[in-house]
Every structure is written in C-alpha cells, then in structure tokens.
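Page 47, continued from p. 46.
Same chain as before, 209 aa.
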Amino acid sequence: MNAMRMADNPRTLPDLPPPFRVRWLAGDVMAAARHAAERGEEPGLLLVGDDDATCDLALVLVPDRPEAACRAVLQLAMLAVADALAALGPPMKEVVFAAPDGLRVDGAAVGRVRLAMAAVASADEVPEWCVVGPKVRMVLPAAAGEPGAMPEVTALHEEGFGEVGVAELAESFARHFLYWMHRWTEEGNDAVLRHWRGRLDPLTTGSVR
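Result:
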C-alpha cells in the first residue's frame, strides 16, 4: 500500500475561504506537502492526515520575503493553533509554547509545529516554497498507559476537548492562520514574536515532540 495514497473516503472542510484547498491524506502529510511544493503547487494547499487520533496538518506556502524573515511562519502557526484551541476548548484551558516548536495544554505536551523550506544560498534569499505543519494529539496512544500515567504528555480528549474532531481543529487553525498572516503583513516580525513570547513557558527548553 502506498503510504502517501489519498484517503479512500475523502472528507471536506466546510466554508474555508480561498486560497485554501483541502486534501485528506493517509500517510506522511509533511513529506507529501514538501513533494507538492517542490513540484510547484500553488500556495494554500492544506493536507490533513486521515487519522482521528492525531490532527496532522501541512500547509503549502510560497514566500515573498527572505528566508530569515520566513522563519516567523513557525510562530504564526503556533499562535494559530493556540487560538484555535482556545476557541474550541473548555474555558480557562491554558495553551502555552515550549521553545522552539512545542505546544502544551495545562503544562503537558500535546504536540508541536514543524517548518520546512526550500534550500537557499543565504538567509537574505527568498525560498521557493515553505511548508508549515501543526501536529496535535487528539487521543493518547495505548503505549501511554492509563490516563495520568505520563503527566508530562496529554491529548485534547484528556483535556476536555472530547467533542472536537480533526476537521474542526483543522478548519479553526486555517482561519486563525489567515488572521496571523494578516497581522504579520501589517505589523511585521517583531509584533508576532511579542505575541509568541507572551505564550512561552519559561520553564520549558528544547523541542517538545
């Protein structure tokens, strides 16, 4: 079986504005998005992993600024995920970041955001493509044992997001990502980084996977 086949029963996300084009995928969505970007895919392709246990997303972008500035896309996506979780989840759930790319709910790791870009000769060169990919656990894997056995790791359904599915989270992420892209365009990198740092958990270091 091809690990990158399209899902047998493709689903759709309702009401996503242009430029988003959604495809459900059974397999490695980041690898598939990178391949699509390398082939010249138009920006706005959102690949969604066809697995209800994990919200695994990859969004293809075409940068218009140098590689050094484009790295802020990671922070944009993290802010978009945090806002999506705040909009969909129970009140007062704390969503914070573990530098450089980790996502935490009430202090426990729930996922991360990945960033890939086309190679450039120097940091002031504009990459040909960029892919950003949030990955959030919806339910804990069986290997995690009984709930509470690994308090440093969590999943949305353990945190009261039981009615939230992959489609709802993917749609909310896409809309909030558009919002943060607009803020980035209007206000620049420094403003985005201020908001990102405001959610940064000072007790965490390194990447949460």
